[in-house]
Input
Amino acid sequence: MKVKQLLAILILILSISQSGFAKITYEKRFYETTPISIETPIVDGILNDAIWLKGVWQGGFIQREPLEGSKPSQNTEFQIIYDNNFLYIAIKAYDSSPDSVSYMVSRRDEIDGDAVGLAIDSYNDKKTAFGFWVNAAGVKKDFIITEDGNNEDANWDPIWWVKTSKTHDGWTAEMKIPLNQLRFANIGDLTWGLQVGRYYFRKQEASYWQFIPKDASGWVHNFGEINGLKGLTPRRQVEVAPYLVTKTESFQKEEGNPFMTGRRNSVNVGLDAKIGLSNNFTLDLTVNPDFGQVEADPSIINLTAYEIYFPEKRPFFIEGSNLFSFNMQSGDGDQASENLFYSRRIGRSPNLNRDTRDNEYVYTPANTTILGAAKVSGRNNNGLSVGLLESVTSNSWASIEYNDKRNHELIEPLTSYFVGSLKKEYNKGNTVVNGIFTSTNRQLTTTTEDYFHKNAFTGGVHLEHYWNNRNYYVSGKAYMSYVDGTKEAILLTQTSPARYFQRSNLKYEHVDSSRTSLTGNGGIVEFGKTGEGHVRFMTFVSWKSPMLEVNDIGYSQNVDDIFQVAWVGIRFWKPVFIFKSININFNQWSGWNFGGQSAYSGGNVNFNFQFKNYWGIGSGINRNGENLSSGALWGGPTLKTPGNWNNWYNIYSDERKSLIVAFGGSNVWGDLNSRVYHEYFGSISYRPSKKIQLTLSPDFTISSRKLQYFTDLDWNSNKRYIVASLRNKEYVLSFRVQYSINPELTIQYYARPYLTSGKYSEYKMITDPLASKFKDRFSTYTSSQISYDAVNGEFNIDENTDGTTDYSFSKSDFNFIDLQSNLIVRWEYRPGSTLFFVWTMGKQNSYDTYSTSIGRDVDNLFTSYPHNIFLLKFSYRFN
Output
């Protein structure tokens, strides 16, 4: 899309969206609490205690969803009182049809149905809040809000108590929150930010005590206030949770292999702790952690040169992760994963692989062992937030047995990972300065020094400023990296997929085999509008220099990139005609490498509509221009690839119903028939009762591309890069069932069969990778040049057609089948103390032929020998 056309469209949208809509005004609300002067209430959900009967109830909630600014369908009232150790909250959720209240039982933090809750900005920093919610069935949800509502961390699990009760005119909730779970200043009279809310399930209606318009620029800074908090002393939090894990594995026995005896048993002990260094700062500690109860990553066949990103799932690293995050890009999608800190590096799979000889057996651990990890986090009364994280992983050894002799080889060295973060707020939080520093240091030996960096450092600074009631912002980031090691280790870095400096047509960088270090930099400049009115917009320019390397503790697929983006979104949240809400987005992007070449460009238009019957639909269309791909040939020359059109769509049903369905798909049509991709997916979620939920999600993909990298080899002192047409299909079926006996005892089962198969054909060699015409970039082997040797499974190439084979490569069609399943029983037998029983079963198999029968693949999958893991984890939290 041309820049002038884009600007014309944006101006038209701005003019239309700013006219005809009256701005909703609202007043800041105040709640005056009182200390307990009589007997403390019993937390049973029945609000008949004397303190509640004598207190003053406050209501006056206002709808935010779906009819912004309107009176709620049902009334809600609350009271808040306190003593020296606890806050007590009582909420009355009136309902004119009490038998229609939705009581959904589920796991903690996964509440569904009718719910009430509150959020407390006890820092009174206008950016951070502690949330406590409960649904009508008594299921808790607790979370920390940061960045004025832009981030919500549901992995925070404080100790608190809540009970609910059904009444003749609705339902009630009663909460007891220890003050040592909150953070606040040690001053005489306290003022905290306060928000109280209710979700009325039957109408998907959200109403709040402090009304905040949908076009508000933030969340927490718009809270009401709670006053009357006097004489409270900050309390230090001290919680220690030792744990015991017993595990047994069963798998297929291999005759003669001493590491595959068919069974493996282990016992593990460790410790988690949360210790308040002060009321504002907390030390989280884990010693010899075990994350066996965490669901495994899905299997996937990677046909690219780049590492696949998997999100963090381990609770220790997720909780409070926002403080340690330093995004290298803006926006969502693939860009959102690029960060100076990627916690999955800690405890990762060992990097070195040991090739085996005949009659040699090797056992490699799946993950490096985390000896211990600690993090200090918090915020003082002057707006300074601090985060420190240190973790140490041990040496990892491969066990090798050959001719009845066993030895060990180091495959991952002892490594220290450190992350430090500082954030300071000025001008009432409208100006924020954030800095981060990371360090990765390894204890290398002669066997590992040529494969790993000895030291790796990154650092960054971020300045952000808001104005006009935080509706507009400007942001700037700058970061750098430094790695050092042996010449061989730095050579591997220069020739890795993020850089591929060995590309023959790369003119502005080159491989320097004498280097022992690399220093790179990057940054981003951004400007946007986040609130007020129906239009949002954002534009930024980012860069990552070719020498940038953050992957020792961060994540970035590729560097050597200058990236420009413009986005405009228009939001209509009031019902119009048949629509309940309307979202429309316009995007434009361009990219260049550091040689000044245009590397990619594109744009899209997409929308999401929700109808008044609560069904919804979304769709969009992309146009991507020609791309200069540095990784398409896996270290070969930069390849120009054709542009494409891409569209996607999805439809979903009313989420209030016991049966919820969704389906959609996406398509890619490459220019010049260079690529075709079709994906179809669906989801069916069914609640046969308030305690059981079933979810089935099928996904089918079929694709083909003409220039899929296949291999490279040398002939006549010249490099040959071989590509082929690839036809690929994938079948995925995710099944999940959750049975919640009560809010503390849940059973969850998950299974995911995954089938994928690929067939290569029309083998070609790259001739002129940057030719202006697509057909001139490669030469397809003719029947006189290529022949297949069925005995050896190889293609023989007679490139010069002189009757002699010049080079050969193996046939590499594939068929990979995989099944992963998890059964997790979780019992929180007392607040913060849990018992897990986990059964994990995995099945895998692969074949070197293209699949022609999905039925046969399913039969082969279910008859494959399983790898079973049974785990019992017991923890007890001392508080």
Remarks:
- Confidence is low (pLDDT under 50) at residues 16-22.
- The radius of gyration is 30 Å.
